[in-house]
Design brief:
Order of helices and strands: HHHHHHEHEHEEHEEEEEEHHEEEHEHEE
Number of domains: 3
Radius of gyration: 25 Å
Number of strands: 16
Helix content: 25-40%
Largest sheet: 9 strands, mixed
Low-confidence stretches: none
Mean pLDDT: 94
CATH architecture of the largest domain: 3-Layer(aba) Sandwich
Strand content: 25-35%
Distance between the termini: 46 Å
């Protein structure tokens, strides 16, 4: 979005028109909608701006739920924005620590600042990009305890601030930035701030673990089974004695595994009646061993993130499957076995084997009315295909 498009959007006519649009659904609907809006006399630039925003609002529902209906977005800002359920967890840390004035450096469209303001914290949201800062100001307008500054995060004066949150921009206009020195603000700057003030730093979940300071509490977060971030927490917003955590948010509510350090794996053992697929946050946090002990399970093979057990235990930290059969990982065998069971719809999961599930599905040419799940992996070092059903 450029400044001219934003001006069109933020006009009284633009906001009224945006709020009057039907839910964004399909290209065909958009074509007829554009035609209708142009016939009604709305300028082409305004129509383009509101339709672009309607499309972003529809995409944003996944992160913001019904709040998306009153927010504005940029393409890049929505991509990096914190999901509202995770932002609430961030804000809660500052609130529980008794802090009152938080600087959100590199605030993007204002998702985390919004959650902090909702907990009655004073928030100064700082954003370098002029358009994104204006969007954040719109999103935060309902809260008198939040204000937005269009400035470089690294130049902001932190005097008097109680705590800091940073979500460094890890993309430029054309690509993802892999060097932390190129992020905005840079990771080194974020760590310098963390050495002085209670600080939270939101990063991508695949960050090189060598970059994580030993003093930090590192919390990997998944929402509805998707790992969305790792938060590094310092000072009063970190929890004593915890350096590794897996926070799982979903329909079950909130659940967390915590530890002082990476957990040791349990021993490898024979395949049992049940197989557990740990949540990605548990895998990223390297807490599979602790989870296996909770499940009274064992590893199915070295370096394979599946746990097996002889009984089923409900856990928010893992999906549970009942093992129906166990085959050699041979296309001819699998094709025969699926055909014998009339399985025409097959879900294929893999871990620890170099196989393309899409190519395998084509080779198996499944047909029939039944459904099934194949897990391709190694069991005690041997390549196997497990036919399973979800518990």
């Amino acid at each position: 979005m450029d400044p001219a498009e934003l001006r069109e959007l933020l006009s009284a006519e633009g906001l009224r028109l945006l709020d009057s649009l039907p839910p964004y659904e399909s290209t065909a609907d958009v074509v007829s909608l554009v035609s209708g809006l142009r016939k009604a006399g709305h300028p082409a630039g305004l129509v383009a701006a509101v339709l672009s925003q309607a499309k972003l609002r529809a995409r944003a529902v996944r992160k913001f739920g019904p709040f998306a209906e009153r927010m504005l977005f940029t393409e890049a800002g929505l991509e990096q924005a914190t999901r509202l359920s995770a932002a609430a967890q961030h804000a809660g840390r500052f609130h529980r620590a008794g802090l009152s004035w938080i600087a959100d450096l590199g605030c993007g469209i204002g998702a985390d600042a919004l959650a902090m303001a909702a907990l009655e914290l004073e928030v100064t949201a700082v954003e370098r990009d002029e358009v994104t800062a204006a969007v954040a100001a719109y999103n935060l307008a309902p809260w008198s305890n939040a204000r937005v500054e269009n400035a470089d995060a690294e130049d902001f004066d932190l005097a008097g601030v109680d705590g800091v949150f940073l979500d460094p921009a890890r993309r430029n206009a054309s690509k993802r930035l892999t060097n932390p020195a190129d992020w905005s603000p840079s990771l080194d700057f974020a760590f310098e701030v963390a050495a002085k003030l209670p600080t939270g730093i939101k990063l991508g979940p695949g960050i090189d673990r060598e970059l994580i300071p030993q003093s930090a509490e590192a919390q990997w977060v998944s929402v509805d089974r998707e790992v969305v971030e790792v938060g590094l927490w310092f000072g009063a917003v970190a929890r004593p004695g915890i350096h590794r955590a897996a926070l799982v948010l979903g329909s079950h509510g909130t659940a967390e595994l915590t530890a002082e350090a990476d957990s040791e794996d349990v021993e490898v053992g024979a395949l049992g009646e049940y197989l557990y697929e740990p949540d990605g946050a548990v895998i990223r946090a390297r807490l599979i061993g602790d989870l296996a002990r909770q499940l009274k399970g064992r590893m199915i093979s070295d370096s394979i993130a599946y746990v097996t057990a002889d009984s089923a235990t409900s856990s928010p930290f893992a999906a549970c499957f009942r093992v129906l059969d166990n085959f050699s990982l041979d296309k001819r065998v699998l094709k025969r076995e699926l055909a014998a069971r009339g399985i025409g719809t097959v879900e294929i999961k893999k871990r620890g084997v170099d196989i393309d599930p899409a190519e395998l599905r084509t080779a198996l040419s499944p047909h029939g009315d039944a459904e099934g799940t194949l897990i391709l992996t190694r069991v005690q070092g041997r390549r196997r295909a497990l036919l399973v059903e979800r518990v």
